[in-house]
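B., you asked whether I could sanity-check this one before it goes into the benchmark set. Here's the sequence:
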Amino acid sequence: MKTNIKSKPKQKHLGFKLRKNIPIATLSNYKLGGKADYVAEPKTKDEAITVLNWIEEQKLPFMIWGGGTNILPSDEEYKGVILHPKFEELSVSKNIITVGAGVLVADLLKFTIKKKLSGLEWAGGLPGTVGGAVRGNAGCFGGEIKDNLVSVTSINIKTKKVETRSKKNCQFDYRQSYFKKRENKDLIVSARFKMKPGKEADIKRSIKEKVDYRNDRHPLDYPSIGSMFKNVPWKMVPSKYQTQLQEVVKQDPFPVVPTAYLLSECKLKGKTFGGAQISEKHPNFIINKNHATAHDVKSLLFMMKRAVQKSFGIKIEEEVIILS
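And here's what the prediction gave me:
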């Protein structure tokens, strides 16, 4: 005699990609961290709004995740949703590029070479996504993401409305923006950049110069999340140390003292804690040398801050996002 066994009900189609019980290390450049209960990966604005409504209905905490190139994850399990958008639009009209927030900066630069458009060469070798670069007004080699930016389109997470802001209304400052100030209140969808026609060979060469510079000076053979601390604005340097430091001042894009120099002067190169190490190649990097934990990295961060405060009277500020 056969027994009727009820089959499990099929999971309701959510309208977006949702993965469960995901190791955060697979999303992070640092290759460390606990697990996340959920990872949602919307590809369009409509999917993103559906995700946000679902998160609200489920009453779950969430965090927005780009390329994972400037986030120090936690060692603990994340009981919520990592919102990892896959907005990958990439188009051009009248020298204005529209690029999705999920596009890697490296892929945007390849596009500018192909289309012979100049203006973003300074970003050669910049890791992560365009959305992350906009949020933090990423910059290097005298350039910043705001320089060529026209506007940013985002979703207001509370109202679910799509909003477009001009560069002025994005409130850009040194490694700062409207979106960074309003953490987890806006989801960047895309950005528009005004470019200039250029020669393909010149654009390619200029980008390669920046990439080569990074490869030569940065410890890219181990997992890391880039520079851990912002450079120090010259105006923040105590007067008693200005004579000592004035020779190392650089434009970034205003006068700053490189934090890497301060850390080097504090003799911190090569210092280790657990599996983490302050890079011998570039002391503003902490590398994951041997199965480091977030606790290991945080211990070195504390050491670095304390040493610079003691030696130069300067309180250095993290450039990366630290998840507790």
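One thing to flag: Confidence is low (pLDDT under 50) at residues 1-11. Otherwise nothing jumped out at me.
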